[in-house]
UniProtKB/TrEMBL annotation:
PANTHER family: CYTOCHROME P450
CDD domains referenced in this protein's UniProt entry, alphabetically: CYP86A
Annotated transmembrane regions: 41-61
Name of protein: Cytochrome P450
Length: 544
């Protein structure tokens, strides 16, 4: 080992020592100043770890409690269960209702909000008819949808609702219905829908049938209600700005109801960010479209004292209401009713026919028997098809859930106490899945449950509107119920007579479409189909 003499070490000056001393002092002070921050972070971590663990436990526990009323905890109520099932609310709530002995249960949403859910026909009758005056749209429903629906018929109560309903009712008499089928629907069917389906069949094109049906219904409601043809169902399938904006308005407005807490969407609206910014822009586009329809109608009314054909919009404009915003709200409400509900019902109907070919055969037999009858009489008397549509909407209702708000304290049939301001929700989607209402075979698509055999023919046997509230009931029962059925049956007859609708989901995947709900129901991701000419099917069968 080599020793190094002392005088060979590097020399250290006084300045060097001073500099190093300052560096050590600064480092020591920095270390001392960071100690409180470290202690705070450690304390926060100690608090958060058990809290997060507790939240995870509650979340996991409630995500697996799909068939019983969720537990309610101090301050937060059933928040964790609601959060865990926020992406599948309809199946989750239906599962709870199916195991509830009275088909009625109370969900505590937070420390102060309780909501009643019921599938009991007696409760439905109570809130929709017997005690109708005590159950209105209410504050929650109104504040959530006012941006989109304003003061239209679906978002208000009282005198304004009565006025809009009275004026609208004139459009649903027999004469108007016959005109709707024989001129509007049949023309749209023969001139637009059938050619598009025929072209798709020849070319082997995959169509989104949900989109096609929405376009069809949109053209129809605009023509019959406003005397305006938007020509949205064309071979090019144009992506109209209004239609896209309307779709966004429906979806985002519906998503407000499923927000973990209303403060979230209200905060985004205040800052004009995210989905609320998109909603604002979409509603602006929708209202501009509606305003242009109104201006065009006013101009036509001004040029001619009375039009040959009086439609819904003409009636409202002639009723003395000069407030354009009010009339815009009416236009938007009727587009929503006419476009989304029938198209939703038909989308799921054609899916169910594919799964049940024997029922499709029965419907086709009925169509062929009626082929020589006048258009209106043909669809009016299609009993088996009517029953099949009812059965389809039992399982997949266009409006799967609806709420009313109590004006005063009340007690529901069965004894559930309702306090002023509480929401009472009736649940057509869940009701269609209750064994107590439909028997142990409720999951089957069975049109015969609506029929009674009389000699060699079927007779339709309807259910009361409180067991089957797909079209609401009581004073608010859907004015367009008969019009909807006539339109749907005409589409079914026109399409099935010539074509078979074949789902075209990804091959090799056992695809069960997902039922989702915004303001109305949808098939998530659309309904991709291939169209097959029936002549080709008969030719293939002959060759085989």
């Amino acid at each position: 080992m080599q020793l190094v003499p002392i005088n060979t070490y590097p020399s250290t000056t006084t300045n060097d020592i001073t500099t190093k001393t300052k560096q050590i002092s600064v480092t020591k002070r920095e270390g001392q100043s960071s100690q409180p921050k470290i202690k705070s972070a450690m304390l926060l971590l100690i608090i958060l770890i058990p809290l997060l663990s507790l939240l995870f436990f509650f979340f996991f526990l409630n995500s697996n409690s799909n068939s019983k009323v969720p537990k309610s905890y101090p301050l937060v109520g059933s928040f964790f269960a609601i959060l865990a099932n926020r992406k599948r609310p309809l199946p989750w709530l239906s599962g709870i209702m199916q195991v509830s002995p009275s088909a009625t249960f109370v969900l505590r949403r937070n420390y102060s909000t309780r909501q009643v859910f019921s599938g009991d026909p007696a409760v439905v009758q109570h809130i929709l008819k017997t005690n109708f005056s005590n159950y209105g749209k209410g504050h929650v429903f109104n504040r959530t949808l006012t941006d989109f629906l304003g003061h239209g018929i679906f978002n208000i109560d009282g005198d304004s609702w009565k006025f809009q309903r009275q004026v609208s009712s004139h459009e649903f008499n027999t004469k108007s219905l016959r005109k709707f089928i024989e001129t509007v629907v049949d023309t749209e069917l023969s001139d637009r829908l059938i050619p598009i389906l025929s072209s798709a069949a020849k070319q082997g094109t995959v169509l989104d049938f949900q989109d096609i049906l929405q376009r069809f219904a949109f053209d129809n409601i605009c023509k019959i209600a406003f005397g305006f043809d938007p020509a949205y169902l064309l071979p090019s399938l144009p992506q109209a700005k209004f239609a896209l904006a309307f779709e966004d308005s429906v979806r985002i407005s519906g998503e407000r109801f499923s927000a973990v807490h209303p403060v979230i969407w209200k905060f985004k609206k205040l800052l004009n960010i995210g989905s609320e910014k998109r909603l604002k822009n979409a509603i602006s586009e929708v209202r501009e479209f509606a305003l242009n329809i109104i201006k065009e109608k006013k101009q036509r009314l001004g040029e001619k004292e009375s039009l040959d054909s009086v439609d819904l919009l003409s009636r409202f404009l002639s009723s003395g209401h000069s407030d354009e915003n009010f009339v815009i709200d009416i236009v938007i409400s009727f587009i929503l009713a006419g476009r989304d509900t029938t198209s939703a019902a038909l989308t799921w109907f054609f899916w169910l026919l594919w799964k049940n070919p024997e029922i499709e055969s029965e419907i086709l037999n009925e169509i062929n028997e009626k082929s020589e009858a006048p258009v209106f009489d043909e669809v009016k008397d299609m009993v088996y098809t009517h029953a099949s549509l009812c059965e389809s909407m039992r399982l997949y209702p266009p409006v799967p859930i609806d709420s009313k708000e109590a004006v005063n304290d009340d007690v529901l049939p069965g004894g559930t106490v309702v306090k002023k301001g509480m929401r009472v929700t009736y649940f057509p989607y869940a009701m269609g899945r209750l064994e107590m209402l439909w028997g142990s075979d409720w999951a089957e698509f069975k049109p015969e449950r609506w029929l009674q055999k009389e000699e060699e023919s079927w007779k339709f046997v309807g259910r009361d509107p409180y067991t089957y509230p797909v079209f609401q009931a009581g004073p608010r029962i859907c004015l367009g119920k008969e019009m909807a059925f006539l339109q749907m049956k005409r589409v079914v007859a026109g399409v099935l007579r010539r074509f078979k609708v074949v789902p075209a989901f990804e091959e090799g995947v056992n695809h069960e479409p997902e039922f989702v709900s915004y303001l109305t129901s949808k098939m998530k991701g659309g309904f991709p189909v291939k169209i097959v000419e029936r002549d080709h099917l008969r030719h293939d069968e002959t060759e085989s």
